[in-house]
Write a structure and sequence with these properties.
Belongs to the YciI family. It comes from Ruegeria pomeroyi. This is YCII-related domain-containing protein. Pfam families: YCII. The chain is of the alpha+beta class. The protein is 28% helix and 42% strand. The protein contains two helices and six strands. The strands form two sheets. It has a four-stranded antiparallel sheet, with helices on one face. Strands 5-6 form a two-stranded antiparallel ribbon. Strand 5 and strand 6 form a beta hairpin. The radius of gyration is 14 Å and the shape is globular.
């Protein structure tokens, strides 16, 4: 199943992102089979969090992956939202 994961960052904790970025990127790369896409979200020029697209068997598997991310224990993340996503359209065609 596919899951959309969005993260909201804690205001005032932006310095933690750069401090742990190398570990975070290495983590994403090591889980490339499950993490189909990942990147920051913006509100104008200001970063507001991030989003992942995950392929996993269960929501619990996604939660486990989220909690293994080096960003997780740093207090950078204010919240996380995990939703199952069912793709019905791709490349101009119904799936």
């Amino acid at each position: 199943m596919l899951y959309r994961v969005t993260f909201q960052d804690n205001p005032g904790k932006e310095h933690l992102r750069q401090r742990h970025m190398a570990e975070h990127l290495a983590f994403l790369a090591s889980h490339g089979a499950a993490i189909l896409g990942a990147g920051p979200l913006f509100d104008g020029p200001q970063g507001r969090g991030g989003m992942w697209l995950i392929e996993a068997a269960t929501r619990a598997d996604v939660q486990t992956l989220v909690e293994r991310d080096p960003f997780w224990p740093t207090d950078l993340r204010q919240s996380v939202d995990i939703l199952e996503w069912r793709q019905v359209f791709r490349n101009g065609q119904p799936v």
